[in-house]
Amino acid sequence: xxxxxxxxxxxxxxxxxxxxxxxxxxxxxxxxxxxxxxxxxxxxxxxxxxxxxxxxxxxxxxxxxxxxxxxxxxxxxxxxxxxxxxxxxxxxxxxxxxxxxxxxxxxxxxxxxxxxxxxxxxxxxxxxxxxxxxxxxxxxxxxxxxxxxxxxxxxxxxxxxxxxxxxxxxxxxxxxxxxxxxxxxxxxxxxxxxxxxxxxxxxxxxxxxxxxxxxxxxxxxxxxxxxxxxxxxxxxxxxxxxxxxxxxxxxxxxxxxxxxxxxxxxxxxxxxxxxxxxxxxxxxxxxxxxxxxxxxxxxxxxxxxxxxxxxxxxxxxxxxxxxxxxxxxxxxxxxxxxxxxxxxxxxxxxxxxxxxxxxxxxxxxxxxxxxxxxxxxxxxxxxxxxxxxxxxxxxxxxxxxxx
Length: 403
Hints:
4-stranded antiparallel sheet; 14 helices; alpha+beta; about 45% helix
């Protein structure tokens, strides 16, 4: 591992910092807003901020850093992506494009027809169209290949019937990319097709799922006789499973999470040392909590170094395997530990989410760690459960036999 920038990387880092210093809108400097929401907000200021930030990135080709340059992307190497994401995370600057840039665009570049690329890639890069994923179903989550949403060919269309769940951000989406079963007699990993669906198509219903942190991130999506043009099929019919798991080789170090963990624990320590924090903190009263906080601080540095390990491997042309599982397992469980520590630091004050008037005068740090505690519950499930990660580490990393 090499923690130092090469001259080229240092130059690129300075360029990213200049962009953030000169062009990040004040709304995002204050920590307000979410780009996905802002782009369709009823607030003109929010829409203007989203457009300005999207345009600033797009004119440099940084709207989609990992796309090849011939498709309007940044063409960044894994190390350049690492530097870019690191500086964005340090500034808490929002990423743009959502799943359109991260997942669908990469899939279309590999599997899409020329017509599909011409129609959809420019609209992703301009921020005009926001995409969301329709994969999971009530009976097909971790075992996604068991999905049952049907699509039947009818002339020039496919007719979709079924239900998706946990559709993240579907209420902000313009289009959905959906895995559907087109051959119910085939083995479960076959007989699946990949379709592009305009959300305004008649027969689509989006219902919100509010989590226990009172946030609307997930949705249920229902399809009732939804007609989708056959030209919206990506790749071959009944080969959609292989299309759906396509990803380009982009940076996967999770440096964003490492920087966020480091920032949050540093802000917790600074707050607890301040006048307001001292009156609410139990750090001076209970040694065990102080020791736990010190342990969490050490572990945020360990997570940071996991990120450097993975990007160092990718930069040498290696593909992280069990190393990525180790980092994911450690990061998701650290997120839960850090949230628990934050609530312990403030004791009974951590029961306060916010004041009734909408302020946070009595909630330490605006109730941040109370919300983090509740919202961290699925951290060890999403993106691959901790149990799955441990199995990968055991078999691929330690060479242990399968049970």
